[in-house]
What we know:
Helix content: 40-55%
Structural class: alpha+beta
Oligomer: single chain
Strand content: 15-25%
Number of strands: 24
Amino acid sequence: MFSLALRTLRFRTGGFIAAFVAAFLGAVIVSACAGLMETGIRSATPPHRLAWASAVVAGQQDFELQKHSDKPKTQSVSLSERVRLDRSLADQIRATPGVSTVVGEVNFPVSLGKRPLTAHGWESARLPGPAPRANEVVLPAAAGVSAGATVDLAVQGTMRQYRVARTTDQPDAFFADDVADQLSGHPGKVDYFGVVTDNPAALDLGSSVSVLTGDERGLAEFPEAQASGGRLIPLSGVAGGLSISVAVFVIASTLMLSVRQRQRELALLRAIGTTPRQLRRMVLGEALVIGVLATGVAAALGPVFGRWLFGQFTSGGFISPTVQFHQGWIPMIIAAGATLLAVGISALVAGFRVGRIRPTEALAEASVPRRWLTPVRLIVAILCFGGGTALGIVTLAVMTGPIAASTSGPAVMLWAIGVAMISPGVTKLTAIVLQGPLRLISGVTGWLAITNTRNAATRVAGAVTPIMLAVGIATANIYLQTTTSAASAQAFSEDLRADAVVAGPTGVSPEAIDRVRHADGVAAVSTYVSSRAFITAPFDENQTKKGYPALGLTDPTTTAATVVRGNLADLTGDTIALPDTAEVSRSVGDSVTLRLGDGTDRTLRIVAIVNQRAEAEQLLLPADLLAAHTTAGLPKQVLVRAAPGVDQARLTRGLTAATAGLPVSVGDRNTLAAANAKADETGAWVNYLLVGMIVGYTVISVVNTLVMATSRRRREFGLQRLGGFTRGQVLRMAAGEGGLIAVIGVLLGTVVSAGAIVPFCLVATGRVLPDGPVSIYLVIVATAVALALIAAVLPAWVATRTRPVTAVATGE
């Protein structure tokens, strides 16, 4: 039977190409997603400036968070700020056998006009020539400043003049080592040490220190690369899982349509003695041949597509450009296995019905499909609808805020699978409902389109399912994202208690803050410092793996928190205000121990318990306390509230005049809202890219399926024309069928998306309908209709080019 399968593929070019395209595209997408996951797991970040070092000694950015419960256990978590090391550790490193060079490195931002630069000490430059003096700086030649010139640099929130000692081909700025130590904001500390040693394993410096070798050295230079990998792993996992689910749909629809079109041929094989097992082996053999060829070609193009996707992520700012793309043989195996499994399952399902019919009923079954709802279909549909309903109930009863979207993706797929199981019946029912309006519009051709759809509901359902899937996935994911963004913008606007913001590229200095406080029209000023922290004693089970967001303030009136107990005016020194949702919320006056972003443990006294917006709970700390434990060391923003009766224009003029000569900028509420929206745009853009990729695959399947279904009807079209139909009437009939398929697919896709959108919107916004322009839905609908019409009419136009007698004589 396998040899027969190989022979039949030669005479089934259309079905072969359609199944090949479906399997090939599925394998390419799955391979690319698996490559992105491998890249995220590796997080390979080759060193740039530290390429000369055989090892890098850095602070330990991870720690084991001890959970205090009935069954104590630990969890590895990451700190949000750079963990610095004492400069004195260099002596211990030099004393290690095999070490020949130790260089301490500091990194801090400076700004030359509007050009941001990263500055270092001269020792780490490893360039020939004398070091710059205390009043000198070495700048990159690309800055366009010649040696000997005097420049104004923004450093630590202030403007300072330096003489340019020389220029280099490196992209960074360099100061004298003692000057850099002071300007870094953390005197006596280094970010990491570059070490030349012939035995890195001998560097045993304690559990609080990491010794990095190979590509891991780059993680010390670019700590954001580790976070990039962490974002890439769940993203690629979700996209890959969704891609596999869609691939199963698409491949199954294509193969089942191909087998259904060959029903007469397969029925004849049953009539001459072919056993059901042989028949299923033949169908499976054909499918596996197609699958092997498709995965073989995809093995070459999967990494290319994966690299392109990775490039889009890095250019969009979602992934650090310092991370190196990796795609080895494991993603290829995953893609091949997933695709062949999907092909195999689809082939078994497609051949199951044909294999079950009795030889005496074979020809009748081939000519008139009588049964579409099998017990398996019914059970799967009930289970999927039950699962989708359960996820909706969980969303409404348990989820809060934006995290409610986490149940929406699975809900879409469950509703889609359930609808696909009963799509032939829904297709026939919809055709009956629409037969009156369609016949009024298009007359006899519309009646014939309706009749064909009703009598061939199982065949038509194979084309309806991909459209339903494309419309459902696109509508659900796009409107979930627009609703999330709108809810985030609204929450930010409600929480914002400032009328203006003063920001600096290298931080806002105490001098600038003092000037802002005395500016015309200012009622209140608060520095704004953000970080993350872990409550370690007593342990809080409510905190996530990333800990709690921590907000540093000097004026509590600029926060939207509502005081439940205590007084935010006491938030000074070693104090903290806890959200009322924190499990460790105790009485005012109790103490908690925090591990701050740089790994420092601080015991703080509770001065207030506050109520905050759901899913936006934060720890409130004094700004100076929190800023000292951040990478920057200075607040980046200052929030300003206007005095009563002061309009925005007057406030802006007063702040601009007060901060003249300082490296800061003044913005209004719109500036803050725009910055918040821009942060959301990156995640939204990535979501749109992945959804577009999967929907694009589904759209290709729509065209693929419709073209295959229509092009196989050459004989049917010929008979209609011999019966008196003109070619134009046949084409209008095909257009009517395509339009009807599109309408049914859009209706079902809308139902599928509503199963995910409505519960989420009720939780996130309190409304049934999502936020976002209706034009998005109209574009989705118009695209589905246009594709269905083109894919139905164009093959019909090609099929009717031959003479009717010839078409009838040559058969299908």
